[in-house]
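Please complete every field before forwarding. Incomplete forms are returned to the sender.

SECTION A: IDENTIFIERS
Entry label: holo-184
Bound molecule: calcium ion
Molecule representation: SMILES string

SECTION B: INPUTS
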Amino acid sequence: MTEDVKAQKFSTLFRWFDQNGDGSLTHDDLRQMTELFEGLAREDDKENAAAMRNAFETWWRLLLTHGDSDGDGQISRQEFIAVMKADVTDPGHFEEAVLAIVDALMRALDTNEDSVLSQSEYVRMYDALGVPPVHSAAAFRRLDRDGDGSLSHAEFRTAISEFYLSDDPEAAGNWLLGPLDRAD
Ligand SMILES: [Ca+2]
Ligand SMILES: [Ca+2]
Ligand SMILES: [Ca+2]
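SECTION C: PREDICTED COMPLEX
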């Protein structure tokens, strides 16, 4: 059976989050993701690092509370896809888990306070987060909607929101993490 576009995107996201690659998500996987994100903030930027950490903890609690249907303390790929669709992308939850990370990340990266990311900044950021430059460079070109060579905070938020919320197979934001996972 072909999965819908959201299931494909959340499957791609699952593979990214599953840091030890054992096919299931644990608190440790999420903590490792948190460390990658925190590593993008400057050493003295405690505020944005803490905001990202809190948002990832919120995300993990949502996964565990709403998504661990077999109660084994881990989130399988199928559990992840279901809970992402039903709960994490619920507007209030989406704001406090996903968009809180995006906003803190943009603030942490915007060290010259021009509120935009160049392509090289964008690619370097995703490289540090484990997304290959070939994917992030291609994504950047799609996500830079006004084609001015930089990604504004608004363009980045739009991309993230499309990735998580859009059912449109043609949405530019689908390319955030590279080609969609069509594993099954
Ligand atoms: Ca794992
Ligand atoms: Ca489980
Ligand atoms: Ca732009």
